[in-house]
Amino acid sequence: MELFATFKICSTGLSAQRAKMDIITSNLANANTTNTPEGGPYKRKRITFTEDPLKKGFDKTLGDAVRGVKIKQVTEDQEGIKRVYDPAHPDADKEGFVSFPNVNVMMEMSDMIVANRSYEACATAFDAAKNMAQTAMNIGK
């Protein structure tokens, strides 16, 4: 197996979790945005991942088993838009209702904790692989 394969896999995990954190941050920042350039309230964004096979550097035994991760897509969650009666609000419709985003702050915060822990796990794995590589290089001394 290639020496730097673990670094490649860890880097895909770090990038994926950073992107997830960016989406969560956007959702939290827009939790009360009632007007967007597209019209209507902000819609919660969701990110999905898919596995990403490493294309080279593996022997036949590990070639199909070891994979990284990549972003599959970012979608808007269309469900759960809240309508609140507030005729004094500048974005109220003719009936006096305002549409608020479908962002649940508690759910976003728990997703943030999961993304943070996943990022930390990838960083720890990267550090462990680095220490193993350094130990291997010191064997010949």
Describe, in plain words, how this protein is organized in 3D.
With 141 residues, the chain is an alpha+beta fold. The protein has one domain. 42% of the residues lie in helices and 19% in strands. The chain has helices at 5-29, 105-138; strands spanning 45-53, 67-76, 82-85, 97-100. The longest helix has 34 residues, at 105-138.
Spatial shape: elongated
Mean pLDDT reading: 89
- Helix-strand pattern: HEEEEH
User: What is the subunit organization of this protein?
Assistant: single chain
- Compute the number of structural domains: 1
Strand content: 15-25%
Cα Rg: 22 Å
Q: Which structural category fits the helices and strands?
A: alpha+beta
User: Major sheet: order of its strands?
Assistant: 1-2
Count up the helices.
2
Tell me about the biggest sheet? 2 strands, antiparallel
Number of strands: 4
Contiguous uncertain segments of 5+ residues: none
Distance from N terminus to C terminus (CA atoms, Å) equals 23 Å
Residue share in helix: 40-55%
Architecture blueprint of SSEs:
Elements (H helix, E strand, L loop, with lengths): L4 H25 L15 E9 L13 E10 L5 E4 L11 E4 L4 H34 L3
Antiparallel strand pairs: 1-2, 3-4
What's this, in brief?
The protein is an alpha+beta fold and 141 residues long.
Question: Keyphrases for this structure?
Answer:
two-stranded antiparallel sheet, elongated, single chain, 19% strand
